[in-house]
Amino acid sequence: MEKTLELKSRLNSTFGILSLFSVVSGAVSIISAILYFIAQIIIDGFSLGEAVYLKSNFYCLFIIPQFLLPISTALLACLIPVIGKFKFRSCIKKEKVPVVYSLLSVLIFPGLSTVFSYISYMISELFNMIGIPVGDINSAIPTPNGLGEIFLLFFVMAVLPAICEELIYRGFVLTGLSEYGKVGAVVVSSIAFGLMHATVQQIPFAFAIGLFLGYIAIRFNSIVLPMVLHFINNFIACLFMVLQEYVDNALLNNISLCVDIFFVAVSVLALAIFIILSVHEKKDKVSMFQIDSVNIAEYTKDSPGYTKADFLSAVMHSWGFWLFTVIYLFTTVINIAVMQLSI
Q: Less Cβ crowding at N or C end of the chain, within 10 Å?
C-alpha cells in the first residue's frame, strides 16, 4: 500500500487541479448564460430583430465559453508547477516524429474517428430508445453567419481544442502519470478526456480517440502529432457543420456517407502498413502495441517499483480522480435533463 502513496499523491494533485478547472469552466458557462438572457431582454425591449438575436446566441452561448479554454490552460500552466510539480515543457519534446509514421497516423485517424463516431451514435440512440433523449450535439451549436463567424467557429472548435486539450490531457495528465505505467496513464487520461466532454454522444467517442492519441503521444514521446490529429478531426467536423447551411441535406448526407467509406478504407490500409512497419522496425526504441511479442512484453512491463495492480489500486483510492469523475458525470446528467426540458 505504501508503494502507491506517491502515485496516489500525483493522481490527487492532477485531478484536484482539473476539478478546479471544471468548476471555473462551469462558472463561466453560467456567466455566459446570464449574459445571453440579458441580451435577450435588451433585444426584446428594443425590438432589434432576428439577426441580432442569432448573433447574441452565437457569441454569448458559444464563443465566450469556448474562449475560456486558452485562459484556463494558461491558469493551469501557472498553477501546476506550484501544486502539481509539473512543467508543460516536459511534454513537448524536440524529437521529430518520422515522416512516414506522421503521414500514416494522419491517414489512420479520420477513419478511426468515423468508426468511433458511428459507435457513439448507436449508444446515444439506445438512450433515446429507452426514453432518455440525448439530442444531437451539433444542434446545440449556433449557426455562424458570414465569413467572420465561420472563421471564429473553426478557431474555437478546431484550433483551440487541439492545442489546449492536448496540453492538458496528453500533456499534463498522460505525461505526468506515464512514469508510473504507460498503459495505465493512457487509459486514465483517455477516461478523463472522455468525461470532460460531458455528453452521452461525446464521452465514448472522446474516450476511444483519446486511446489512439495517447498511444501516439507515448509511441513518439511528443504531443505535437496528437495536436495535429486532433485539429484534423475537429476541422472536418466543423466543415460539415458549415456545409449544412449551404448544401441540400440529401446531397450532403450522400457526400458524408461516401467520405466516411473513403476514410475507413484508407484507414484500414494505412493501419496495415503502420503495423507492418512497426513489426519490422529495426530501431532500439520499443513501440507500444507492436505485434512482436517480445516488444509487447518489453513495453508493457511494469514500471520500476510499480505493478499494474499498484496503478489500478492507486486510481481506485484516489479522491482526486473520483472527484473529477463525479463532477463530470453530474454535468452529463444535467445536460441530459436540459435536453429533456427543451423537447
A: C
